[in-house]
Amino acid sequence: MNAGVLARGFSSSLPAAARAIPFAVFIGLMAAEPWLGRALAGYIDPRWLYGVRAMLVAGLLFVFWRSFIELTLVRRPAWREMGFAFVVGLLVLAIWLALDSGIFVLGHSGSGFEARTADGGLDWPLALMRLAGSALLVPLMEELFWRSLIMRWLEDADFASVEPSRVGMRALLLSSLVFGLEHSQWLAGILAGLAYGWLYLRSGNLWVAVLAHAVTNAGLGIWVPATGAWHFW
């Protein structure tokens, strides 16, 4: 293989890496948090590790930002699209709250993050930290990975050249299936993936899917401390 072919292969992998690395770091640190929490128990409240994880991923998104042309070089979503995304986000929230038991949950729903003080009151800094991470960071990170990268890659290995309108039903279904299995609430996750993916295909604008995802997560972030349903976190 000559140097030109190697250079083209390396350059074509950079867009995929930019979308995959923040997600991989987020999931990797999430898996490591129980161990890190025990190791740092005498120095930091383990619940703040979520904030550390979020800040690291936010830094990676900032570093790679210029690579996200599906966010930086697209038109601003129309008011009608934003309104539609808001409605879809609320519908997904309703589905998420409804499908949280029995066969619709693998293992335990959520990690059980509880933003409460020792006397049982709400720990506002912890709650706001978790809400900001789940409503602002996670939708951006996950939509870049699952919809922009994985869904388009399933259509064509040269995913960056794939317009959303070209994505077929197979890619939408497969990416939504795997997205759902990433979550303990597997059926709600699959339906959420289908909803966000459909919004991206319909609008051709990833910001519309990000907005719907953010509405779902923000709604859940308000519901959890308001009702004490910490198992969703």
Question: Can you walk through the features of this model?
Answer:
This protein is mainly α and 233 residues long. It has one domain. It contains 8 helices and no strands. The N and C termini lie far apart (49 Å). The model is unreliable at 1-11 (pLDDT under 50).
Brief write-up:
By secondary structure, the protein is mainly α. It has one domain (3-232). Helices cover 70% and strands 0% of the residues.
Report strand %.
Answer: under 5%
Q: Termini separation (Å)? A: 49 Å
The overall strand count is 0
Tally of structural domains:
1
What's the topology here?
Blueprint: H1 3-39, H2 49-64, H3 69-72, H4 79-98, H5 124-155, H6 169-181, H7 186-203, H8 206-227
Task: Provide key terms for this protein.
8 helices, disordered N terminus, globular, mainly alpha, 233 residues
